[in-house]
Design a protein that fits this description.
heterodimer; A: alpha/beta; Rossmann fold; four-stranded antiparallel β-sheet; 11 helices; 25% strand; globular; B: mainly alpha; two-stranded antiparallel sheet; 12 helices
């Protein structure tokens, strides 16, 4: 592996024709073999950044290198070496599973013989072996998603770019996909993904960046972000009546969201003391997680 | 820049265009029954209709039995219609509804590769449609000279021409219903004023030149020339027109579609 990063994004901006500034100066690096995640509310600029990596979208300013190539000049090389899973399902619905992959393999110039072997291997890998002759319309959402991932792996990519790979899928499929991606990691794959699922980011990503309104607000290892950007424990008081009855006025950080009150502290005992006197069903004491960090840094208002 | 740069074996332009073409062929032939039969049925119905009805009233036109005059043009109007539908409604559905191009753009293809490959397919489809009409014409004994077979490559060119024009229109359309205007105001009139249903020499002399700018005129005249019929403009003007308009409109259409494919 070369010393230079697999993906280098430096001061990148994107302003769309209508004047909307989707990305306003984002920088990050992804090392070879690393799994990197982009998080952020809708409109944060995640998908714009992903699309700029393979010239589906052009940057307004800044510098991008993917596997040593600039997408503005060498999109073909980048796409030849990468597998890309866009957000929307875009299989050829008129063709069956195998034909979808065969047609796609031609885009990479794969020989018929190599294609056959590769398709068998990938369908087995993603547990679609029994669906070879199935029409796309007969597949469940989870199967379609796996098929698109198989399609992205046809050319044995060094880099996999996944834009919200598991949105709308059931937990079984989601875990299956995570397991498969971890297997690919062992073979040296580099992965770049966007997701709205904190659990997914936490499970898969070595490092991640949280974007908001086109800017990076946090970057680091998921565990470190939780450790250093939020208190260790959260007390959630669910009942409005219960929270109204609450007499606590001390220094513990408090957040009020409509009907709920949240207290944050590094001391569980401190939160237990606050909860004393409340009915057992009215509150919930737990460890803080990435979602708490996410909401703290990007705010709770809707980004629409 | 890394050293891997020189060693990335991206497929050649020809192979990339061929792969796009192949994708369309596979999708088209996946419903062989519903896609393959109509090109033969349509001229059949048309010829039976004309033969039973209209043919009795018009004995000859331009020295030919009317049905034989009409037959020449029909070979190419079928290519015009199929190309026009292919690169308006079908292209729009691929672009906006099925997101087919999003999927293809994730492979090692450029937006330009996608569009040129698509035009290549449209042209091929036009040749197939023209061939289907010729088969039906021969059943009716209307293929009087083997030169009529020039209709197949001319079907290719006709479809390339109308595919390019349709793609240019599609690049500017945001609502699929707007294509109705294109068909009503542009394609349908061409059927009547391009020397298909009556000879252009019948047009008043002072407006005859307008027909020179109508795209369907030129392939139809070329096929008439091949079949030994009379023409107004002649093969040199016809070939120059096709040789200029197809690449110019095609390039413009692909360039403008690129803006729809890359944000």
């Amino acid at each position: 592996m070369s010393a230079e990063p697999a993906i280098l994004v430096r001061e990148v901006t994107k302003t769309y024709a209508g004047g909307f500034q989707a990305v306003q100066g984002v920088s990050f690096e992804v090392q070879h073999g690393e799994f990197f995640g982009l998080l952020g509310p809708n409109g944060a600029g995640k998908s714009s950044l992903m699309r700029m990596l393979y010239n589906k979208s052009t940057r307004t300013s800044g510098h991008i290198e993917v596997l040593g190539f600039d997408p503005l000049r060498n999109e073909l090389e980048i796409k030849y070496l990468s597998g890309i899973v866009p957000q929307d399902d875009n299989l050829d619905v008129d063709l069956d599973v195998v034909t979808n992959l065969r047609v796609y393999a031609r885009f990479y110039g794969l020989s018929a013989k190599a294609t056959r072997a590769r398709i068998d291997e990938l369908l087995d890998f993603l547990e679609l072996g029994e669906k070879k002759k199935a029409k796309i319309r007969e597949l469940s959402g989870g199967m379609r998603r796996r098929l698109i991932i198989a399609r992205a792996l046809l050319n044995e990519p060094k880099l996999l770019i996944l834009d919200e790979p598991t949105t709308g899928l059931d937990p079984q499929v989601r875990h299956l996909i995570w397991d498969k991606l971890r297997l690919l990691k062992k073979q040296g794959l580099t992965l770049m993904l966007t997701t709205h699922y904190m659990e997914e980011a936490f499970q898969l990503c070595d490092r991640l960046a949280i974007l908001d309104r086109g800017l990076t607000v946090l970057e680091g290892r998921p565990i470190d972000l939780v450790k250093s950007h939020i208190e260790a424990y959260v007390l959630e008081i669910i009942q409005r009546e219960a929270s109204a009855a609450l007499t606590y006025t001390g220094p513990v950080r408090r957040e009020t969201i409509q009907d709920r009150v949240l207290f944050f502290s590094n001391s569980a005992a401190e939160l237990e003391a606050i909860a004393r006197g409340l009915n057992p069903g009215d509150f919930y004491l737990r460890q803080s997680n990435l979602e708490d960090v996410f909401l703290k840094t990007t705010g709770r208002s809707l980004h629409e | 820049m890394s050293d891997s740069r020189v060693s990335v074996p991206v497929p050649s332009l020809v192979r990339r265009l061929g792969a796009v073409w192949w994708r369309h062929v596979r999708v088209y032939s996946s419903s062989l029954f519903s896609n393959g039969i109509p090109p033969f049925l349509e001229p059949l119905i048309f010829l039976v209709g004309i033969g039973l009805g209209l043919g009795r009233y018009i004995v000859s036109m331009d020295g030919l039995p009317y049905i034989q005059f009409l037959a020449v043009g029909l070979v190419l109007t079928s290519a015009m219609y199929t190309a026009s539908f292919e690169n308006t409604f079908a292209t729009f559905v691929r672009l906006e509804f099925d997101k087919v191009y999003d999927g293809m753009q994730a492979a090692s293809l450029t937006a330009e590769n996608l569009m040129w490959g698509e035009l290549l397919f449209t042209a091929t489809k036009g040749a197939f449609f023209a061939g289907a009409v010729l088969v039906m014409l021969s059943v009716f004994g209307l293929v009087t000279t083997p030169w009529m077979l020039v209709g197949v490559p001319l079907g290719f060119l006709t479809a390339a021409l109308f595919g390019a024009i349709a793609m240019l229109v599609t690049s500017a359309v945001t609502n699929i219903n707007h294509f109705n205007f294109y068909f009503t105001l542009f394609i349908s009139p061409l059927f009547f004023f391009s020397g298909v249903v009556f000879p252009l020499s019948q047009l008043p002399e002072n407006i005859r030149w307008v027909a020179m700018f109508l795209p369907l005129t030129h392939p139809v005249e070329l096929l008439r020339t091949a079949a030994g019929g009379h023409t107004v403009f002649g093969p040199v003007i016809n070939l120059v027109y096709l040789g200029v308009v197809i690449p110019v409109v095609g390039t413009l259409a692909v360039k403008r579609m690129r803006r729809r494919l890359i944000s």
